[in-house]
Design goal:
single chain, eight-stranded parallel β-barrel, 11 helices, binds 1,3-dihydroxyacetonephosphate
Length: 252
């Protein structure tokens, strides 16, 4: 069955010093996790965070990856550069990349395919804006993101999908358990339609958007939600509470 997967996305936060300190603090708190655990960190922090996480069950991921092996792509990072540090995951198509840096579904697709070819698990983000949700086009938007973003992927079970409603990211407005479950169940049914029903059963789908220690249990109890992609709450000790969502709370 699907193993739950809780990942932090540090975005443009932390330094080598503060990041390593957080990993050292969290490592003993998450060591008995029943889920996979990762931090996706700014590229420049990858060497130091890999070092800090050595010997722990915390994997290190990147926040993006380019599709070409090398070349004149100022500011981009290749799969080989990530592999040199044993990076296991790369977020692709985060809504902040789409919104502020003009990334498209086509580019997301190239990035995801390159990661897969290199043996890096892409965490492909999809999700609607508030205007799209209010217009009733959530499913159409996500269908398009999936049809283009996941085109020509041979083994979809090697991809992690993160459903991140843009209106819930960094706003403190979390999707309700029902909203998150409904849309993630839709994403799973689309995987069944685009790929195969059996694959759909095996794809890990995370929820992301203001997920925290207080609301993680309700979200994780939903049948189609297999994990979380955590922004703000991955910058503090709260992250351990989320990773340990299936255990009694330690701080009330
Ligand atoms: P927040 O948890 O800060 O809302 O961010 C979610 C996110 O964008 C993770 O990729």
């Amino acid at each position: 069955m699907r193993k739950p997967f809780i990942a932090g996305n540090w975005k443009m936060h932390m330094t080598a010093e503060t990041g390593a300190a957080l990993i050292k603090e969290l490592a003993p708190l998450v060591k008995d996790a029943n889920c996979d655990v990762a931090f996706c960190v700014p590229a420049i922090l990858i060497p130091a965070m890999t070092e800090a996480a050595k010997g722990t069950n915390i994997a290190i991921g990147a926040e993006n990856v380019h599709w070409e092996k090398e070349g004149a792509y100022t500011g981009e990072i290749s799969c080989d550069m990530l592999l040199e540090y044993g990076v296991k995951y790369a977020i692709v198509g985060h809504s902040e990349r789409r919104q502020y840096f003009g990334e498209t579904d086509l580019g997301v697709n190239k990035r995801a395919k390159a990661a897969l070819a290199a043996g890096i698990t892409p965490i492909v983000c999809v999700g609607e804006t508030l205007a799209e949700r209010l217009a009733g086009s959530t499913e159409a938007v996500i269908r398009e993101q999936m049809e283009v973003g996941l085109a020509e992927i041979e083994d979809i079970t090697k991809v992690v999908i993160a459903y991140e409603p843009v209106w819930a990211i960094g706003t403190g407005v979390v999707a309700t358990n029902e909203q998150a479950e409904e849309t993630i169940a839709f994403i799973r049914s689309e995987i069944g339609r685009i790929f195969c029903p059996k694959c759909a059963e095996n794809v890990i789908i995370q929820y992301g958007g203001s997920m925290n220690a207080a609301n993680c249990r309700g979200l994780m109890a939903q049948p189609d939600i297999d994990g979380g992609l955590i922004g703000g709450a991955s910058l503090t000790k709260d992250f351990a509470e989320i990773v340990n969502y299936d255990k009694p709370r330690t701080n009330g």
